[in-house]
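Journal club side-thread
Mid-discussion, someone asked how the predicted structure for our own chain would compare to the paper's figures. Pasting it here so we can look after the session.
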Amino acid sequence: MKPILNALAAAGTLAATALPGWAETKLTMYYPVAVGGALTEVVDGLIEGFEAENPDISVEAIYAGNYDDTRVRALSAINSGDAPQLSVMFSIDAIDLVDRDLIVAFDDVVESDEDKEWLNSFYPALMRNGQIDGKTYGVPFQRSTIVMYYNKELFAEAGLDPEQPPATWEELVADAKALTKDDQWGIMIPSTGYPYWMFQCFAIQNDKELMNSAGTETYFNDPAVVEALDFWRSLTQEEGVMPEGVIEWGTLRQAFLQGQTAMMWHSTGNLTAVRDGADFDFGVAMLPAHKRAGSPTGGGNFYLFKDSTPEEQAASLKLIQYMTAPERAAKWSMATGYVGISPAAYETEALQDYSADFPAALVARDQLEVAVPELSTFETARVREALNNAIQAVLTGTKSPQDALDEAQSTAERLLKPYQ
């Protein structure tokens, strides 16, 4: 989608020539770039377009790596007395940021009826990670669900219907067996980077959420959760349709494009990169169901940091409203594959035309109907690490699902006890 990338960037660059040499309000925004491709030119174009429309505001975007890198760098800047005014960070960071008293609720910044209407314009499923105690602390921008990519040509070669991807766990196993051969796996699911996120898919499909809505309890060793991890393990150790050991998040897309696997589960944020890189016909489907269908939401939200002036908060709000406007949300979705964050984005002529030509662009949006919030708790990084370690121990064959998840649950209970 290079024409879209270039158009966004060029529009901002041309408009930026009208900028004066000064700005009354200066904003610093930390932004994660290592999530679905080289997106800095897109974000730069959006910022330049905003500055052209608001010559009294200047914005410095600091590209900080992945979500964890962005969090570390933004908090380090705050601790050093050089606090940014806003950032895009993990949607699941909200509980911890509120607990540390670092961010302000958007409800306390919006004033007009128009502002309030904007705050209520996003898909409810994308708002749930950012809403705490009745207030909204995170506004969606770079958001996703996990979807299944599959190689239609390999489906046809295996005698499978390329227009009928597996819709249940049982069909997934059967299709993956038909697709597995000496130099090709039936399916790959990444177990580095965000293993807890992928595991949440299996858990919710087995009809069990991993945490409560307050982020004070986890259910890692619930029988349904243990059963879910055992099923993931079985794809390798019993069914033989997935490689043994861990599967790298960062290289899986290329493995799919090279035909090393016929199916993969991955973020919809890779959709445009897959479309640009595939030399074969591929499909995108919602994840297969078991007791129910489902995927966690994922990705990044905008946050407003508390250590900024009312003028800076007002300017930050204006920037966020600009970047989340339906037309720009639509272009962002087309340029990346991330979900259009509001129904209005899908009502734009641009996204309607795009999705009519490329229906795969609608799969992640449609999956929002059955989506759950991404795993988020107090002490979220340490709780996630405990679960990640358990998942990898099981997938590498060093622990049983029950033992590994018992340990993860024990760690989570110890970390969360002060918040209960």
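Post-session note: The chain has two domains: 2-143+297-372, 145-296+376-419.
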